[in-house]
Amino acid sequence: MSYNRKFWDEYTKENESRYNEEFAKFIRDLTTSLRCTSVLEIGCGTGIDLRLFPEIYEIHGVDLNENALGIAREKLPKCDFKNGDITNLPFDDSSIDFVFTHQLLNYLDDETLEKGISEMFRVSKKFIMNCEKFNEKEEQIDENHKFRNMLSRWKNYELKIVSDIDMHEDIEPDKARFTLLKKL
């Protein structure tokens, strides 16, 4: 897995401006309705998607960028933020109720993506959600990322498809694909 620190440091500087309260509410409300009490965001950045969770939740975030994690820890001191890699998540098997990504997987090469999917499945106890820019053929968006077809990536895992739809632009302005899976 290659990691472009300069790119992600710049991304971190802009991350606070990407805060989308509607998406943060959506994630909080979804996990509540699914009766989840532990949540993990992989590629959490500065923690913007985790900010609306009440303290009764066990909240975890993993990211490779220490600058982003520093901001996340400052803004959400009661949450558990770890420096980590999607291919080797620092959690026990089936230990997190709800594991999710929000436009992280678009930035991964195919080999890293496949290893990451396996790790997401391993640590998930109940649900996995991906919210990623979508097209069927997974074409390149630009030099840094490409579209993903996440449902096709999960076909060899023991999961039930709960949802696979484009998100409404009021919740996710990029109209990313919302894929929700229940672990069997």
What oligomeric state do these chains adopt?
single chain
Mean pLDDT reading: 91
Across the major sheet, the strand order is: 3-2-1-4-5-7-6
Q: What shape does the CA trace take?
A: globular
Supply the helix-strand structural class: alpha/beta
User: Count of DSSP E strands?
Assistant: 7
Report the CATH superfamily.
Vaccinia Virus protein VP39
Structure, explained:
The protein has helices at 5-15, 21-33, 66-75, 110-123, 150-153; strands at residues 38-42, 58-63, 80-83, 96-102, 124-132, 159-166, 177-183. It is α/β, with parallel strands linked by helices and 184 residues long. The protein has one domain: Vaccinia Virus protein VP39 (Rossmann fold). Strand 4 (96-102), helix 4 (110-123) and strand 5 form a beta-alpha-beta unit. The longest helix has 14 residues, at 110-123. It is globular. The model has no long low-confidence stretch (mean pLDDT 91).
What are its keywords?
184 residues, alpha/beta, Rossmann fold, seven-stranded mixed beta sheet
List the helices and strands and how they pair.
Layout: H1 5-15, H2 21-33, E1 38-42, E2 58-63, H3 66-75, E3 80-83, E4 96-102, H4 110-123, E5 124-132, H5 150-153, E6 159-166, E7 177-183
Parallel strand pairs: 1-2, 1-4, 2-3, 4-5
Antiparallel strand pairs: 5-7, 6-7
